[in-house]
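Reply to dn_fold:

You asked what the input looked like. This is it:
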Amino acid sequence: MALQIWETLKEAITAYTGLSPATFFTVLALLWAVYYVATALFGSSDDHHHHRSRAFEEEQMEPLPPPVQLGEITEEELKQYDGSDSKKPLLMAIKGQIYDVSQSRMFYGPGGPYALFAGKDASRALAKMSFEEKDLTGDISGLGPFELDALQDWEYKFMSKYVKVGTIKQTVPVTEGDANGEASGAAESDAKPAEDSPVAETEKKSSAADTKDE
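and this is what came back:
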């Protein structure tokens, strides 16, 4: 039975391919060898690339540390969190409120489209959608209603997406009037004890004695 099947197979190979059974199986073996070698070469390269891609994705997906509350800091201290130090969180402020934007480092970190806003209160720049150095400030005086509305939209976005970690310490400038007021107050306080000095007491007693003699 098996011999009959083999004879039928040889006749079919010769009829359909025009090759002898020996030649046919030789060609088939060579094709299989070529396929095996190609799979070994390109398959290992793909696996290596896949492993590298997976490692890169895992690195990118590494969980960020929880935001650290800083409390009240100065604008100068805020500049330390502009993304130049990868070990520090990436911070940005709007209207004096500081937010941790580390999760959006691709936008606000070094090389990102909004990198110049990091480490600063960029309220004015966001309101005007400006990238000029002079607008990288928290001063929003003189802005129009449309600019203030745009700034409000940015603030809502930050409040809903990022964690607030602190506020910017407001510095109150000392005006000339305040300085004069402090100086006059100090002069009055210096002059007041003079009324209670020994000389003043002696003059008061002499005046009282003269009045009594009269």
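Helices lie at 2-17, 21-60, 75-78, 105-108, 123-128, 145-161, 176-195, 198-213.
Hope that clears it up.
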